[in-house]
Amino acid sequence: MTTDLEELAVRLREFVRSRDWEQFHTPKNLAMALSGEAGELLAEFQWLTPAESQNLDSPTLARVRAELGDVTLYLIRLADVLGVDLVEAAHAKLDENARRYDPERYRGSARKAPPLPS
Amino acid sequence: MTTDLEELAVRLREFVRSRDWEQFHTPKNLAMALSGEAGELLAEFQWLTPAESQNLDSPTLARVRAELGDVTLYLIRLADVLGVDLVEAAHAKLDENARRYDPERYRGSARKAPPLPS
Amino acid sequence: MTTDLEELAVRLREFVRSRDWEQFHTPKNLAMALSGEAGELLAEFQWLTPAESQNLDSPTLARVRAELGDVTLYLIRLADVLGVDLVEAAHAKLDENARRYDPERYRGSARKAPPLPS
Amino acid sequence: MTTDLEELAVRLREFVRSRDWEQFHTPKNLAMALSGEAGELLAEFQWLTPAESQNLDSPTLARVRAELGDVTLYLIRLADVLGVDLVEAAHAKLDENARRYDPERYRGSARKAPPLPS
Asked: What is the CATH architecture of C3-19+37-100?
């Protein structure tokens, strides 16, 4: 894991340990928390047009930034508990997508296939 | 953003640009994709006991790792499009949580307050 | 609960009982499954424009209908396990929203407040 | 659609129309709102053990009931906008699952296949 992500993972470990919260941080529970926070992020955008979502006003951007922080914390914590390197996992998935979605064939098309799919 | 995250953000920019997919990558759509991938990650854990989620078999761990890769990619892409530094946003949120959840008062308790809450 | 919903709840009880799956259907697990299915529904719309989402092609509508079926099944099952009447809960929430969002004050505005919010 | 669900759908149509909110209620936006509310429901269960989730205290059950109300409202509204009959869609999905998951073969096993899967 990168230095910055590792630093966050270490800080989280200490945060959790000092409150005796390891008992709550099973992978199952952390996956729930991550998904819940992703839902809060989603809610910030639900009534905006696509164009409005590209020009957030200042209070909305501040809330979105805080939700992105929450998602990042739970993602790092879940990966740490599972022993997964997020940067390696992301590169591996992007390698796979690069093979799967030929640039010429999928140019400008989200119909044939979703970008960056699962 | 950290060097490793910045490298992923740059790689994603090129991946998207070479397929002419910028048109699909509005913050609204990316927040949807992130939440959808978090849902796929969640589904891997839904029938497992908490203890089972701490001892994943090898095929499940491989799928979980791939889903973590997807979530990471969309999170980085969304932050990049919005101009948000994920590492800074995560530290800011953890600072806030450290102030909000006194270690003594919240020791061992997820009832009084959820760990790492929104 | 309405006759049709009650009929589905009873059919689900028998489906689950005959497979000895009650052990998996805790409220926690069912809430995860419901959220995961909502994420699959979300994924069907993520790259569509708002206008496209109003004019689904036939294969997409068939997939969306199947996902709506999944969400409905888990919602009914979760409510049944918890002993909650969904129709009463929905009316109670709509009563609350009707009081909270004055028609004149909130006319045409999702900015001041989200429609049907939590 | 059943009488009770139809009654809720009609009540929602009037609620939305009287506030001029039809413009926000595209299927894309409603799928986002549904997923966001499912995430709020999920968050109620994230730190509970499976056993605790089966014995909710009174304030938690009240919040869960309110979230179930929200999910139900958005599900009915989305189906109404799309012209999908939820009860028919649910029965069709349950028919499919009954064929797919032989009671003998899948007895007591969420490993071989998740119950009520997508």
From this structure: Orthogonal Bundle (1.10)
| Cross-chain CB nearest to C50 (options A39, A49, A114) | A49
Whether D94 contacts C73, CB under 8 Å:
yes
Residue C15 CB neighbours (<10 A): 19
Single out the residue of C90, A70, D45 nearest to residue B45, CA to CA: D45
Residues 6 or more apart whose Cβ sits within 8 Å of residue C106: C112, C113, D19
Chain D interface residues (partner A, CB cutoff 8 A): 24, 29, 32-33, 35-40, 42-43, 45-47
pLDDT digits (tens, 9 = 90+) for C69-92: 999 999 999 999 999 999 999 999
Q: Which residue has the tokens 């296939």?
A: A113
**Which residues in D13-31 are b (16+ Cβ under 10 Å) and which e?**
eebbeebebeebbbbbbbb
Chains that contact A by 3+ CB pairs under 8 Å? B, C, D
- Which of B19, D39, D38 lies closest to A117 in space, CA to CA? B19
Query: What CA–CA distance (Å, rounded) separates C16 from C6?
Result: 15
Cβ <8 Å between A114 and B67? no
Spell out which residues of chain B touch residue C67, defining contact as CB-CB under 8 Å.
none
Of C10, C54, B95, C22, the residue nearest D83 (C-alpha) = C54
Kindly tell me if the per-residue pLDDT of B97 is higher than 90.
Answer: yes
pLDDT value of residue B109: 82
Report residue C28 as tokens. Answer: 């926690």
Angle B78-B82-B88 from CA coordinates, rounded to 5°: 90
